[in-house]
Amino acid sequence: MNVRSSLSLVLLAAVTAAGGCGTPLKHHNLPPAQQLMEPGPGVGGPGPGVLPPAGPPLMGAAGFGIASPGGPSGLGCGAVGPGCGIGGMPGFGLPGPTSQIWFASPDGAQVRWDVGMMGGFVSTPLVMPGRQNFPMGGIYRLKLTNIEGRPGVELYPTLEISPATPRTIAYLEHNAIPVQFTDEDFAQVLAGNMVTKVIYLPDPEFQELVAGVETLVSTRLDPGLDPIVEADRRGAILAIVRVGNKDLETPGIGTGYGPMLGVPGAPYPTDYLNGGLPPGYPPLPNGALPNGPLPNGAPGPLNPTVPANPLAPPTDNPPAPPPVDSPISPAVHSAEAGAAGTVPVQPVSGPYGAMPVAPIGGPMMQPGVYPTFPHAGGYAGPVPYGPVAMPPPYVVGVTAPSYGYPITGTPIGLPGPPHIPLGGPAGLQRHVMNNWTHHHLPDPTHRLAINVKQKPGFSYPRPASRAFIQEQMIHPAPSYRQPPGNQFKVIH
Amino acid sequence: MSVRLAQCAGVWAVRGMAAWTVLVLLAASTALAQYRPNVHYLQSADLPPGAIGSHQLLRGGPLPGYFQPVEIQAPPGARISLATAGGFTEPQPAPVVVGLLIGHVYRIKVTDIPGEQNIGQEAFPTIEVINRLYPPPGYEARFPVPVQLAQDDLETALSGQFVTRVVYLEDPFNVLPVAETPQTQRYYEVHPQDDPLEVADRLGRPMAIARLGSRQPDATGPSSAFLYGAPPWLSIPKAYCTPVDKLDPIREGRDIPRTP
User: Fold this and answer.
1) Mutation test of the interface with chain B: which of A4, A7, A86, choosing the one with the most B Cβ atoms within 10 A?
2) Is B210 a domain residue?
3) B217 in contact with chain A, both atoms CB, cutoff 8 A
4) How much is the average pLDDT of A390-400?
5) Is residue B46 part of a domain?
6) Phi and psi (nearest 5°) for A105?
7) What value of ipTM does the predicted structure carry?
């Protein structure tokens, strides 16, 4: 035993001598900057004391790329650091950030989009390959014609442009998002299938040798895999293209866009109420309706509410009462309320608790009213048909959960039937989640002692305090004595 | 002490222990070889343009308002334009020496890129200066920060990829003993999983970040957002930019033109 313990001591000494006390056996890590914007695990929002956005963000919502007083480049909301906060808040009246789309293929095909009004596709045809800037955070209906080898085929894909995030700003400000349609896509569409293409910027662990975007196509994935979920897992989504064979210019199809293109006051299509979601909405489990704000800034259709514009002038016109037989609350249907900017706030009980949420289309949207582009005057760019005027991401209460509300649900807290199958006794009596994540969050340092040491240090010889002087002549002086022979002289 | 243990435990035990000791020492030395500074890098090269420079300005020091001379190099024949309010300047043949403010993002235009496949192509990279040099007063223009827009980088960017190039001032105690010419700039390819800013920080002091992509301005002209507000820059005449190695050592110090 003595031998073993001694040998163990030798090993320990060897390891200590080799590694030293300063060996970084444990690295201190912080989560990435995007995650640091969250005040705590499971809690969204930038932190207490942060006011929600004051007014309806115009098309220049996020300050991306706009010269801001706080920073040199007008960084967007959500970018960490100075120059990003205030400068990235909704920029009233300023031109909004755009993403450049590079329609790469097929060669010779023409792309049109809406300009000024919806459903017209009256833009100047863009011959592929070509580029066009689209404001971020919108969904655009395109018209694809002159497809080589497929005469007479006209397709109406939608193009959804994601808002920029701190992860994608640098890429989007320097690169165009490539969008290409292949023969396989056309074959799938003409066969009656819907093709969803998700262009995303992969995270470093999923990147190839050179940083670039990748595309996931729904028809190439295994059945059951959602390309949007998969792309979101692999990186940051830049754009989503959905292609089907629906002809939007067939007579009598005018209200295909739901409330956006319908008659003022028209209710939502029943598809939405029954669990169907418009483009831009993430899939929900079991067809549940969205109750909280959705990532693209468009909250759930059944959660009317909200945030009125504090900057808007007061009005004497109260919100119009809802139709008696309408299942939808006033805020959704009341065009007057939206126009006056005094949409009533109505807490909605959902997975996040009672929280105010905005009506579909974003706080800028006037439900049921033909959506006019905020910059209609002088603006000649593409007009989105989806949520207009997307607020910037990570705005608490709008595009992120309100501060203080957990975003992690449990089977008990989730809405829906508490027991399955229906009618049976509640099976789940207890749900325990143990978080075993190692965490070390020490208190602030009260006293700080800084010891500075420079290696090698300064070393000078000690000054002399005693001297011994000895002179030695290497070559002794010649003898000046009188030669002995000359010391005596005989004088006669 | 080991001698005494060896005598007690026998020869084979001593051999086995020695082997284990050697293995442990080898493992420890391997760990030391893979040593990485225990530093949390708050910033990365993926941050939005201007974020790192603005952070740098907040750290204090003589950075705000200083026009750091930058020599923008490009392939032979290429021409460079700088952003002004509402557009770009007349193209000038590379290299171009200008003074750029720290923390601002400058959009430049590169035209006449060599190569048949690049005829008519234009690239619009950005340059962000995040630190400055401290040359002798009056000779700042003779020590510009070289930012090279290499042919490969330009072609890679025009093909749709995103290239980030971090220029750093190498650590004088950790330099590569290879001669370097002023016309070329040595560079390292960084693995996609590595952050070029972090690697540059380990090798020296990051000075500037050049980002290259394929995005083009609007057909109606570049917007202010595209030009990052067109921050001011300082034009430096070539008379102030004579490299130090081409100066006459006899005349040096007497009539070398100084920057005003």
Assistant:
1) A7
2) yes
3) no
4) 67
5) no
6) -155, 160
7) 0.75
